[in-house]
């Protein structure tokens, strides 16, 4: 499994050469390429990366607003996140249920609630492929159920 951190910037004005785009992580395994989050800075840039799918941690602008016009790829998120993205035009939306492993293009994602925002409930993902696993939570104050 290969991780490519494409962006780590929060919803702030501050930018540096190494910290200039909103949150986005590309997870690659074999031929599969899954993007986790795609903040507003990625609007119009997702197709250049050609991910097989997009997985969203929560509905804040720095994590999901590049999806304002929809996406040509399947998009996965929790029910709470879909509720906040209800006005976004998606033809291919999928729900990831908490603590239920979900296969996304050959990479398994399992959502765990994290404390971050009461307005935009967030999750971290246990990501596994090829016998390896990691936990990714880009914005987190605490993980209540470890």
Report on the architecture of this protein.
This protein is mainly β. The protein has a domain of 98 residues: Ribonuclease Z/Hydroxyacylglutathione hydrolase-like (Metallo-beta-lactamase, Chain A, 4-Layer Sandwich), CATH 3.60.15. It contains three helices and ten strands. The strands form two sheets. It has a six-stranded mixed beta sheet. A four-stranded antiparallel beta sheet has the order 7-8-9-10, with no helix packed on it. The longest helix has 6 residues. The mean pLDDT is 86.
Q: Which features characterize this protein?
A:
146 residues; mainly beta; Metallo-beta-lactamase, Chain A; six-stranded mixed beta sheet; four-stranded antiparallel beta sheet; 3 helices
